[in-house]
Structure formats: C-alpha cells, structure tokens
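B., you asked whether I could sanity-check this one before it goes into the benchmark set. Here's the sequence:
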Amino acid sequence: MAISRDEVLHVARLARLELTDEEVTRFQGQLSAILENVSKISELDLSDVPPTSHPLQIANAWEDDEPRECLTVEEAFANAPDRDDDLFRVPPA
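And here's what the prediction gave me:
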C-alpha cells in the first residue's frame, strides 16, 4: 500500500511538523514500506490466536500510591515560560 505525498503532508500537519520536500519524499517511501509490511499480517491465519493487549505477559510495575505534600503554586510554575495569575500562558495554536 503506497502512501501519497498529500497523506504525508496531512500527517505532518497533524503532528505540527514542517518538512522539506526531501523529507516528504523520504517519509513517503518509509511510511509506504511500513504499511506494506504491516499489511502482510492479514495474510496469516490467526483464527486460533487469542486477542491480546500486549505480546508478553507483564505485571504492573508501579509502586503503591503514597500520600505526600502537594506542590505549592510557586513550585508548580517554577519552570513555566509564561504565567497569568494561576494559569499557564501558552501561544495560540
């Protein structure tokens, strides 16, 4: 399955990436190859394979939640590039 130049540009716009013509051409080839390889899975007989969310059995590796002190407002905004009272100020999209 080949991906078109317009589709590469659409995905780049969604990801807010500015691509050169050379990058668009390169990504078009790479994404087409990825889609072609993934499409080969449909050729396999997977009727006896149960659906899974992960290929390996994994256990939750998170630690138990422990209550602790919250950040102060000043600590929360310490690395913020801009602030408006108790709100983060960000450039418009």
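One thing to flag: Helices lie at 5-14, 21-39, 73-76. Otherwise nothing jumped out at me.
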